[in-house]
Amino acid sequence: MAGLYIHIPFCVRKCLYCDFYSLPKRPGAAAHADGGSFIAALAREMESLPEDFAPETIFIGGGTPTELSDRNFAALFDLLKRRVDLSRVTEWSCESNPGTLTREKIGIMLGAGVNRVSLGVQSFDPKTLEFLGRIHSAENAAEGFRLLRDCGMKNINLDLIYGVPGQGRGALEESLQRLVELGPEHVACYCLIFEDGTPLADLKVRGIVKEVSDDEELGQYEIVRGALGAAGFSHYEISNFAKPGFECRHNLLYWSGGEYIGLGPSAHSHWNGVRWGNVRDLAAYCRNLEAGQSTRAFEEKLDAEAKARETLVMSLRQIRGVGREEFRAATGFDYAELCRDQLTWLRREGLIDDSGDRLRLTPRGLFVSDGIFAELV
Ligand code: SF4
Question: Is the shortest distance between the CB of 57 and ligand 1 below 6 Å?
Answer without folding.
Answer: no
